[in-house]
Amino acid sequence: MQPFISVPSLKNQSLKDLTTWRIGGYSTEVFFPATIEEIQRIVVHYRMLDRPLSVMGYGSNLLIDDRGFDGGIIVLKKNFCKHTLDHTDLLVLEAGFACPKLARLAWTMGFKNLAFLSGIPGSIGGAIQMNAGAHHHAIMDYVKKVEMIDTYGNIHLFDRSVIEASYRQTHFPIKGIVTRAWIALEQEGLLSLTEVLAHRSRTQPLAAWSCGSVFKNPHATISAGWLIEQVGLKGFVYNELEISVKHANFMLNTGNASSQDVLTLTRMIQQRVYLLTGYILQPEYQTLGSCF
Ligand SMILES: Cc1cc2nc3c(=O)[nH]c(=O)nc-3n(C[C@H](O)[C@H](O)[C@H](O)COP(=O)(O)OP(=O)(O)OC[C@H]3O[C@@H](n4cnc5c(N)ncnc54)[C@H](O)[C@@H]3O)c2cc1C
After folding, report:
1. CB of 66 within 8 A of CB of 259?
2. Counting atoms of ligand 1 from 1, which one is nearest the CA of 205?
3. Which parts of the chain have pLDDT scores under 70?
4. What is the extent of the structural domain holding 161?
5. Among 14, 131, 237, 251, which is most buried by a count of CB atoms within 10 Å?
6. Cβ proximity of 14 and 55 under 8 Å
7. Ligand 1 within 6 A of 59 CB?
């Protein structure tokens, strides 16, 4: 199909293996661009075709419909992950760069502020879009500039001051794809990489297929996992989904769970938590949709 885009792509590709939940159907076409020019070419081409286009990093916060995605998907984790140093205290990272790799890179350079990212299995682009965080830090606390490509293929550079970020969400002045970020390196940091990773393996079922936390915490001092435990759902099994006994906010795919199973169990948890505690839980995971 479309040879003039000349960007490596796979047709009718299963998406489940591109996510950490291992759930989802097929996409018409999946692209693995290596340069900004290639991303621009895909965007412009899909706009000309008037076809849906989406973007993903590591698929670690994504629920993909079993019916698949009838459009193109740009996957940045494979080829779009270079980095450079800007002055001595600013890293410029392509959006597919992995968060744990960034934490390690910063640490070996003597900067401790990004250690909290070491246990977040996402890309820089996905982390910025989700304002990913842990241990009272979030990535947007350290982002200085973000480069994006809009729906027409134009490149924009946004200063942090024009980007809105709050708990697990970021809003940009335009719709589009995050392509690069400038992230500040600081010497101060409360936790070491070893402490962050040890805490994770003690408290989270890391070997299982999941999307991390299913729900956002409804309040700074009340965690969704604690509420799910209080209403007696820890360990609950629904088809091939299990509410983790290690961390009740993790919903594990133990075999062949479907996207519909996830939506059903999400609603069951929300209803029970609301009925018994009055708290409304909002899902943290995203469903794959057109980014334009
Ligand atoms: C075991 C485990 C532990 C986790 N722990 C944490 C945690 O401690 N804290 C936390 O915040 N999250 C956590 N997560 C969730 C997840 O890792 C983060 O939200 C991560 O930042 C998502 O990045 P990603 O590259 O996987 O994004 P994806 O899942 O691929 O995409 C997520 C969303 O971002 C969009 N997106 C992706 N890339 C771009 C881009 N370049 N430009 C624009 N939009 C983009 C996608 O379209 C989608 O809407 C965890 C997940 C797992 C599986």
Report:
1. yes
2. 1
3. 1-4, 289-292
4. 83-184
5. 251
6. no
7. yes
